[in-house]
Structures are given as C-alpha cells and as structure tokens.
Amino acid sequence: MREAPIYLEEEEDEGESEEDFSMEVKRSVVEFVVRRFGLYNSADIAKVLNWKVREVNQVLKHLECSGRLKREKLGRTFIWTPVEERHISPMYY
Fold first, then answer.
1. DSSP helix/strand/coil, 87
2. pLDDT at 9 over 90
3. Is 45 within 8 Å of 33 (Cβ atoms)?
4. Cβ atoms of 79 and 40 closer than 8 Å
5. Which of the 8 DSSP states describes residue 81?
6. pLDDT tens across 17-75, in order?
7. What is d(CA 30, CA 45) in angstroms, rounded to the nearest whole number?
8. Contact present, 43 and 57 (Cβ < 8 Å)
9. Quick one: which of 81, 75, 80 has its CA closest to 43?
10. For the domain bounded by 13-82, which CATH number is listed?
C-alpha cells in the first residue's frame, strides 16, 4: 500500500486561519468591552482582560482603521470610544 502524500500548503493555511480566527475573537472582545463598559485607555483594557498592552494596542489600532472604534484625547491621555452608528435615527411620535 502507498501512503497519500502530505501537502504542506494545507497545513500552513490551517495555521493562518487559526491565527485570523484568534485575532477576530480578540477584536470582538475588545470592541465589546469598550461598547459595553465605556471609555477606557489601552492600559485599562489590558488590565481587565489580563493581556499585554502591546496586544491590546494592536487590536485597537485595527479596530480604529476599520472604523469600529475611535481614539480621543482626554487631558494628557487617549481614550477609546465606540463610533456612533449613523444609520440609527430617533423615532418621533
């Protein structure tokens, strides 16, 4: 019997997809924390999630580039806030 050849490309693709999945989960968690609990700086988010500040900053920068969060200056520090949804309009009775 001959064994089927092992394709290395498939294994590399799986690693990339797992990496993308874990990054997407991190983005969702950070976005949820900011939307649900208010205004935080990156050090506070890292403390709450027990992550490194560098990891949190990477996720926050990506969320800022995608338009989901924005960074605002508050005194001498920067805080992260959710972007207001423009398509939701108030209902008048």
1. coil
2. no
3. yes
4. yes
5. E
6. 777 888 888 899 999 999 888 788 999 999 989 999 999 999 999 999 988 899 999 88
7. 8
8. no
9. 80
10. 1.10.10.10
The one-character DSSP state at 40 is B
Provide the whole-model pTM: 0.68
- Retrieve residue 40's tokens: 């935080």
Is the pLDDT confidence value at 1 over 70?
A: no
Query: What one-letter code names the amino acid at 7?
Result: Y
| DSSP 8-state symbol, 85 | P
Query: Whole-angstrom Cα distance, residue 15 to residue 8?
Result: 11
Residue 53 CB partners (closer than 8 Å, separation 6+): 42, 43, 46
Tens digits of per-residue pLDDT, 15-29? 567 778 888 888 999
Q: Where along the chain do its domains lie?
A: 13-82
For position 91, what pLDDT does the model report? 64
Q: What's the distance, Cα to Cα, between the start and end of the chain in Å?
A: 77
